[in-house]
């Protein structure tokens, strides 16, 4: 078995939310709403009988400071030596300074008892055509359940004709929703299943409902945070949090002004108003994170360097979250260190793992972050630095969970994000599509041409896949596999070691010769034939 080639340092414990729980204990599920309701309410709007509970007293305003609980800087466990010791120390210092200055996290800490609301757009440009409201709701439930101590207390699909308005729903449905939420005391937060909510929307909804309101961006980011293990992943999440902190700041300043002003008062001695100070601190935090990320990027043991040294072709394994990317790489490499998990966003770091193709060609499989539909572009952007490694690979495998009811929609999402990553055209044109989890679909027969049905978990279809990967790699890298007979007393062998990848040498002692199996580029082979015409 070939060992994984570690590209990162790893953090001991990754979940800031778990730490946050120490200072903010998980909220227990309310008695009346601790289990998911199977009642088919929703879509009927205001006429629905579940909306008839009396409203609660107006919720308290959010606390005065927009900075939440202090975070704890985690220790680094060095499993690889990508960075020098002093560089680690620098980064730790940077990070410590970051949290000391802004110990904030905009993300919700601790457990939550969620009321899940899916706005169903019946028509218009924002209507989703490849999926159904029920399937989108089911995915939102999975997102909630991916977070430790988060439960779905109740869920509803509610139709809207005004998805782009401030309150998402029309007056009647919003009022009915308010009554329902206020009549469910066990609920600690509402997850509104939209891509991203504006600061004003969040503020108005929180005031109306008396509980926190989260969008898809916040929930997905929180999952990322819980699964982040490396310095780079943590910093990328911190960067993706900045828009949330900006929204919180905006609401905080508006609250301050409502309570009699203050945001435009000058802070003593600084010549800056309170608003200006807060914006500056946030900007500084953002710049520090960006600098720290750039430093990691510079110092990181880049795939490019690794590959140049070893001349290894690389295959990026991509796909929707939980489709089986890590399981496939584990099956193709036998790398026991890989830990596939039935969890969204289990993998947050790009790691490379070496495996062998049928002709014993060594290849690096690159495990990547899974995709999710309707995730705001700027969140993807904070991970795009990591995804840049993908651009340097020779081939992409697109893994699909063919047993998933949303598989067609998932494919569309993945291809749309891949296309937005500015990857080389040749790479996009040679994607190998793999249909995984066929063991869960009795008698599965793909309808699309040139796809590979496999079960990564049970090892089905892997030999055919490896054969195809080898053929494609040879084509895209313009290489060929040759067995060349060489004279052992001549310079051919050392030439081949320098100019090609020598896979195997079988010595023929009585002839003073050897059969050498090489992977060689067409141009190098041309030169070889010119240099050694008689061999
Ligand atoms: N039945 C079945 N389950 C599979 C197969 N491949 C993967 N799984 C399961 O699917 C779940 C997700 O697998 P992972 O390999 O972690 O998926 P991933 O795409 O790496 O997920 P993320 O890193 O979270 O994006 C795990 O529970 C796997 O055991 C398969 O061929 N058949
Ligand atoms: Mg994974």
From TrEMBL:
SUPFAM superfamilies hit by this protein: P-loop containing nucleoside triphosphate hydrolases
Record keywords, A-Z: GTP-binding, Magnesium, Metal-binding, Nucleotide-binding
Keyword Glycosyltransferase appears in the UniProt entry: no
InterPro entries per the UniProt record, alphabetical: G_HFLX_dom, GTP-bd, GTP-bd_M, GTPase_HflX, GTPase_HflX_N, GTPase_HflX_N_sf, P-loop_NTPase
UniProt GO molecular function: GTP binding; metal ion binding; ribosome binding
Chain ranges of the Hflx-type G domain: 313-477
Ranges of biased composition (kind: Acidic residues): 75-84
Residue ranges with Low complexity bias: 19-40
CDD domains: HflX
PROSITE patterns tied to this protein: G_HFLX (PS51705)
Residues covered by region (Disordered): 19-84
Cellular component aspect of the GO annotation: cytoplasm
Entry keyword annotation includes Chaperone: no
The name this protein goes by in its record: Putative GTP-binding protein 6
């Amino acid at each position: 078995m070939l060992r994984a080639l570690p590209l990162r340092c790893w953090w001991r414990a990754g979940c800031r939310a778990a730490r946050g729980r120490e200072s903010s204990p998980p909220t227990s599920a309310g008695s009346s709403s601790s289990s998911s309701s199977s009642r088919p309410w929703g879509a009927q709007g205001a006429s629905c009988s579940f909306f008839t509970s009396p409203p609660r007293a107006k919720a308290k305003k959010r606390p005065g400071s927009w900075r939440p609980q202090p975070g704890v800087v985690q220790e680094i466990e060095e499993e690889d030596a990508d960075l020098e010791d002093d560089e680690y120390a620098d980064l730790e210092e940077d990070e410590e300074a970051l949290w000391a200055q802004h110990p904030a996290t905009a993300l919700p800490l601790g457990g939550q008892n969620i009321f899940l609301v899916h706005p169903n757009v019946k028509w218009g440009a924002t209507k989703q055509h490849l999926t159904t409201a029920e399937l989108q709701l089911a995915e939102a439930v999975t997102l909630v359940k991916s977070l430790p101590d988060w439960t779905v207390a109740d869920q509803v699909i509610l139709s809207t004709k005004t998805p782009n308005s401030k309150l998402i729903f029309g007056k009647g449905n919003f009022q009915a929703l308010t009554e329902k939420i206020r009549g469910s005391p066990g609920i600690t937060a509402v997850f509104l299943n939209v891509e991203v909510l504006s600061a004003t929307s969040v503020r108005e909804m929180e005031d109306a409902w008396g509980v926190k309101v989260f969008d898809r961006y916040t929930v997905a980011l929180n999952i990322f945070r819980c699964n982040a293990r490396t310095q780079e992943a943590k910093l990328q999440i911190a960067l993706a949090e900045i828009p949330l902190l900006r929204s919180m700041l905006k609401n905080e300043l508006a609250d301050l002004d409502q309570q009699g002003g203050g945001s435009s008062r000058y802070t003593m001695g600084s010549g800056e108003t309170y608003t200006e100070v807060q914006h500056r601190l946030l900007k500084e935090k953002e710049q520090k994170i960006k600098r720290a990320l750039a430093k990691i990027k510079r110092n990181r043991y880049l795939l490019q360097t690794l590959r140049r040294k070893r001349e290894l072709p690389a295959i990026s394994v991509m796909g929707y979250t939980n489709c089986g990317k890590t399981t496939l790489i584990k099956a193709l490499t036998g790398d026991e260190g890989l830990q596939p998990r039935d969890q969204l966003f289990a993998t947050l770091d790009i790691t490379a793992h070496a495996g062998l193709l049928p002709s014993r060609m060594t290849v690096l499989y690159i495990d990547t972050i899974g995709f999710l539909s309707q995730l705001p572009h700027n969140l993807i952007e904070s991970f795009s630095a990591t995804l840049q490694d993908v651009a340097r690979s020779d081939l992409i495998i697109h893994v699909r969970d063919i047993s998933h009811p949303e598989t067609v929609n998932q494919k569309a999402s993945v291809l749309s994000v891949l296309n937005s990553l500015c990857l080389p055209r040749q790479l996009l044109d040679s994607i190998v599509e793999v249909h995984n989890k066929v063991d869960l679909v009795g008698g599965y027969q793909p309808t699309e041409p040139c796809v590979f049905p496999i079960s990564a978990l049970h090892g089905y279809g892997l030999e055919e896949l490896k054969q195809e990967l080898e053929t494609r790699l040879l084509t895209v890298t313009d290489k060929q596999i040759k067995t060349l007979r060489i004279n052992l007393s001549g310079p051919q062998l050392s030439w081949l070691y320098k100019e090609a990848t020598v896979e195997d040498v079988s010595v023929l002692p009585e002839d003073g010769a050897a059969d050498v199996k090489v992977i060689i580029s067409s141009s190098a082979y041309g030169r070889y034939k010119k240099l050694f015409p008689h061999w």
